Amino acid sequence: MFSRSAAKGVSAAKSIVPSRSYNVANFKRPTMAELPVPQGSWEQWYNARQRQNNGLLIGGAVALVGTFTVFTQSGIITDFGRGPKIGVNEE
């Protein structure tokens, strides 16, 4: 009984043709003439962006070195994960 109704549902689902109506009636494709024209020097923009990126790079390097220095001077990190020395007796 259930198999018959399930088979009818599957065959009914296969027979439905999808209808999509996404098209706009008065749609005009954009052209290159409608795009904005760049203004100003690309080189000035590029140099300003590189100056900002270099500042971030230098700031990150200073933060890394500062953090490393604080950890080594405070004694939190002492052996940097090298493990015990082989052949050295700790008596």
What's the SSE blueprint?
Elements: H1 2-15, H2 42-74
Please provide a brief summary of the model.
This protein is mainly α.
Encode the helix/strand succession as letters. HH
What best-fitting shape do the alpha-carbon axes yield?
flat
Q: What Rg do the Cα atoms give?
A: 35 Å
What is the overall number of helices? 2
Tell me the fraction of residues in β-strands, as a range.
under 5%
Major sheet summary line? none
Which stretches are poorly predicted, pLDDT < 50 over at least 5 residues? none
> What is the distance, rounded to the nearest whole angstrom, between the alpha carbons of the first and last residues?
85 Å
Arithmetic mean pLDDT? 81
Characterise this structure:
The chain is mainly α. The chain has a domain at 42-80. The chain has 2 helices and no strands. The longest helix is centred in the middle third of the chain and has 33 residues, at 42-74. The radius of gyration is 35 Å and the shape is flat. 0% of the residues are buried. Keywords: Membrane, Transmembrane, Transmembrane helix. The chain crosses the membrane at residues 56-77.
List keywords for this structure.
91 residues, mainly alpha, transmembrane helix, membrane, Deltamethrin resistance protein prag01 domain-containing protein, Deltameth_res_prag01, transmembrane
